[in-house]
Design a protein that fits this description.
It is a single chain. The protein is α/β, with parallel strands linked by helices. It has one domain: Metallo-dependent phosphatases (Purple Acid Phosphatase, chain A, domain 2), CATH 3.60.21. The chain is 19% helix and 32% strand. It has four helices and ten strands. The strands form two sheets. It has a five-stranded mixed beta sheet, covered by helices on one side. Strands 4-5-6-8-7 form a five-stranded mixed beta sheet, covered by helices on one side. Helix 1 links the parallel strand 1 and strand 2.
Length: 154
């Protein structure tokens, strides 16, 4: 299963659309906040793929998305948040604790606009960077295997 992970589009629809049009073989999309209105505007480019969203600090409080969520895809448990409520600009400790509390082996986050792949204590930490800068990540999930992350820039 190929999952596209996006965050922090901040109204840059052109970059967001280009990423989605590049990743036509994706099976699902995660959006990690700060641009939920962009997700609504680009529903056609997402197509019928499963879409998992969380709310960022710049999204309207009334957007109806959760601040964090946990999903199981292809046998992997993924914890997703924007990152502002887990103080990711100061380190990954609070994010790690939240992932552990949710039984996750993958922690997805945004907020910093800096793409990153880290691994600590059995948890893969993945930040796709900012979709406004045409940066995103993919995550290959195969049951029984380690998730395989890749950072991309258009």
């Amino acid at each position: 299963m190929r999952v596209v992970i996006l965050s922090d589009s901040h109204g840059f629809l052109r970059c967001f659309r280009a990423i989605l049009e590049t990743e036509t073989k994706a099976d699902a999309v995660f959006f990690l906040g700060d641009g939920y209105q962009d997700v609504l505007a680009l529903r056609d480019a997402i197509g019928g793929k499963p879409l998992f969203c969380v709310k960022g600090n710049c999204d309207m409080s009334s957007c109806g998305r959760p601040v964090e969520r946990t999903e199981t895809l292809a046998g992997a448990v993924l914890y997703a948040c924007h990152g502002h409520t887990r103080q990711v600009k100061s380190g990954l400790t609070a994010l790690k604790l939240a992932a552990q509390e949710n039984g996750a082996s993958v922690a997805l986050y945004g907020h910093t606009h800096v793409p990153a792949i880290d691994f600590s204590e059995g948890i893969l930490f993945l930040n796709p960077g900012s979709a406004a800068d045409a940066r995103y990540a993919t995550l290959e999930l195969t049951p029984g295997k380690m998730p395989y992350p890749t950072l991309h820039e258009l």
